[in-house]
Structure formats: structure tokens, C-alpha cells
Amino acid sequence: MVKELQLRISLKEEERSDILVLKSALKLDIDREDITGVKVLRKSIDARKPKIILNYKVAVYIREALPEKSDYIFDYKDVSKAKPIHIIGFGPAGMYAALRCIELGFKPIVLERGKNVKDRRRDLKAINQDHFVNEDSNYCFGEGGAGTYSDGKLYTRSLKRGDVRRIFENLVFHGATDQILVDAHPHIGTNKLPKVVQNIRETILNYGGEVHFETRVTDFIIKDNSIKAIQLLNKEEIPVDQVILATGHSARDIFYLLHKKEIALEAKSFAMGVRVEHPQHIIDSIQYHCSGDRHELLPAASYGLVQQVNERGVYSFCMCPGGFIVPAATANGEVVVNGMSPSKRNNLFANSGIVVEIDVNKDLPKYEQFGPLKGLEYQKNLERLAFTAGGRSQVAPAQRLTDFVKGNLSSSLNPTSYQPGLNSAPLHSLLPKFIGSRLRKGFEAFGQKMKGYYTEEANVVGVESRTSSPVSIPRKENLAHPQISNLFPCGEGGGYAGGIVSAAMDGERCAEAATENL
Length: 518
Description:
Elements lengths: L1 E9 H4 L4 H10 L6 E12 L6 E10 L21 E5 L3 H12 L3 E5 L5 H14 L14 H4 L15 H10 L19 H14 L3 E3 L4 E7 L2 E7 L4 E3 L3 E3 L6 H9 L5 E2 L2 E10 H9 L17 E4 L2 E9 L3 E4 L9 E4 L8 E10 L15 H17 L5 E5 H6 L15 E3 L2 H4 L2 H17 L9 E6 L6 E2 L14 E3 L1 H4 L5 H16 L3
Parallel strand pairs: 4-5, 4-10, 5-6, 10-22, 18-19
Antiparallel strand pairs: 1-3, 2-3, 7-8, 8-9, 11-21, 12-17, 12-20, 13-14, 14-17, 15-16, 18-20
């Protein structure tokens, strides 16, 4: 017999290794010896009150053995001689599209402009230390896409787009900790993701798929509303039947290519702003109601904030407790910041994007000349501004949080996790008024919601501009582009995802759609 229960455990109780069995036996009014095992289904932290509670959803096995295997089986087969599906991009959408193709009996041929995870590390080092951006290999481009070296948060609201559990189970199958199946806000960590990504690549290769790194697509040969061939940077042309386009939200050259070829695109609303960095102990003290170090059983505290300011949302984005701020530019001459956390989330700082909603149909009248690329051009201009304000390197412009809100240039800045370094700059006046004024009011409101959040010990760092794609590539109900019958826009780059999990789910859906008529 199996019974599901909701249990509430105090931190003191959590110190006992057998507490779940004891609590389950008490709640079910049975002898603890009758319980053969307790499987945790979900775990979350309730820190709304000073007495912190851990909420567990558990399956209690009564005189019955726990299952040894997952209910999910990934049926990969040899597809080396099967019909090919070409996939452009090897981020979460491209990876899961390739895996799904194999399950369906088709051969994925992946073309990735960047490098594999191992070789990619050298280019990340060059950004941080030498301030040089390799435009094909950086924090956004390369094996695993932006997720590999950014953070690995797996929380998603896209519960109706696919089987979220299946995505998680596949990550565990490829080496991720099974803790992600339990946590309310699961996270793998940037130090562990590269191995998981490498394992996924090996699965694809072992079952007959192909993955080609440092292979940038530069053109599509189109005839009769269909892509007949893909042209590479070296001018090689590859004949294709079906193409899944999974290039991510930062592959601007793809947007320009499609626009030049008069393939329909749409401007898409997105968000831009800054990244704020606090000492982690400040966020811990606010969220856990503690004056000293947080309890050893508690993870680094996170937060989620939102405020309406002048009819636009100002909100936290990609909050990274115990994490680092990283340089996420994809070209020289721009500064972009993002955040990441290692699996233990044990760094001294907490950072989060704080961004403002941008309605491309109302907020960018001066950019109408760029048509569907107006949001992209607005994004680029802000990143160039940050590059200049930082000192024309990957050093980022920054300000103390209190100075940003008050409109003062900071005479000094706080310590930071951002390796290229910070340069004091008047971000309050450099940012477009539309964004800057809302951020300042938003920070004031956040300081009321979280007492201690508004502090001179925090830095505001610019700019957080790659929250999502500013361009959408339309598609029909069958997921193909309305003009190009064998082109399947996919994931964040197409405007259909907002993170690792939703991109992976969309990758699977596009694989199913692309293979349907073959």
C-alpha cells in the first residue's frame, strides 16, 4: 500500500534523519516498522514567519518495497541510417529536439556555431580576464547554449506546454542529481551542467546522430517556399529536408538573415534593466528572519519581487542566490550582464536582474523604422551605451543602489563577484528615462516589501538586456513557419520559451512536428 501525505517539519525536527518515517507513522496511526520506505515527492521552504517550516509531500510505502526504477523510459535507438532532421543550435531546445528525433527514429544532425563545453571554457576566461568576446563562443553560444554556463535553474510556469517531469527525468538520466525531481525550485548549478550537457551529446552520437561544432549557418537556399539547403560560413551547402531553428535569443545574425530574405518576423515585447547585487547575508537575514548566519540546513535565500510602476511591470528576473554576475555579451563593443549560481550556492553574493517591461508596440516610437527588429536595435543601443560607460571594455558601469535611486554618482563601489570589474557611472541618467525612472521607483517599493533590501551595501550593475528575445519568428499550428513549410522556429530564439525547461519542451514538440510528415 502507498499513501501520499503532506508533512510540516521544523528545522529542529529536520536534524533527525528518521523524522519523515516518524511523522508519517504518527499521521497514519501505524507502527513505524510497517513503513518500508518514504519517498519525497516535493519539498519547499515556508519562511514567511520567524519559525521556518519545511513542507514535504511524500509517498509512504506500507509493507511494500519502493520502486527501484523511474516510470520514465527513454527509448533511444540506432538512427545512423535513418532520415535526417537538421537542427541549428545546441542549447536546451536543440538538445531535446535531437534526443526526441532519436526516440522517433530519425537522425538528428546538429549544427552549432560555438564550441564544446570543454573548449568553450577558454573563451569564457578570455571574456573575464582579457575582455575579448569570441562572437561564436561565449556565455550564450556553444554546447548547451546560455544555460550551460549561466545557472541551470529549472523552475518554469509552462506547465501546459509539455511534460515537465519528463524533462527533469531526462536530465537525471544524463547525470543531474535526482534532487531536481523534489525541490520546488530545482537547480542544477553551473559547475555540474557541463557534464550533463556532455552526456546528452554522447547519447546523440552513440545512437547515430551528428553534432558539428564551430559550424555557423550563414544562409538558407530557398525555393518554392522551402529550404533546400543550408549554407555555412565556409560556403559549404548542405541539402536539407526539415530544419529546426533553435539558435537562442541572442543569435542576431539569424534575425538579420531572415529579415533580409523577407521571411516574416514580428517584434516581440521583452524586458530590460540592470542586475542588483547584495551580500548574501543581507538577503538571508531578510528572508529567514535571522541576525547572524542562516541555519546550516537552509539554502542561500532567494527572492521574487514585482511592482507596477506607471503601467509597466518592474520585477526580479533570474535571481541567483550565492552566485556570480557574469559578462554575457556576444560581440565586442557591448556590455551585457547575467547571473549564475554553482550547485551549492555558496558564494558570498546574491544577484538578480531587476527589469522593466517593454511594450514594443507602444514604447519604442523612435525605432519604428526598423520594423520587426525595432526591439533588437533598442537592445543593442543600450548595450553599446553600457560598453562606453564601463570604459570601453567588459568592465561594467555600476552604482550603489542608494545612489542610483537618489541620482548621485557613487564615489566608491561595493565588492562584487563580477570578474571583469566595475566602473562608477551615473546609470540613473545613462539609462533611458523610460527604464531608469521606473527602476528607481521599483527599488524604493522593493525596500518597503523587504526591509533591508534598499541599502548602500548593494550595487546596481548595467545592463541586464537579454531577458528574452526581442524578436518572434511566427509559426502555424503545425509549428512550421507560415511562409517556409519546412522551417520550425523553436525555443527562446523563436519567442516560444523562457528558460531551460520550456525551451526543452518546445524542442521536443518541434521534433515531433518536423518528423510527422517524413
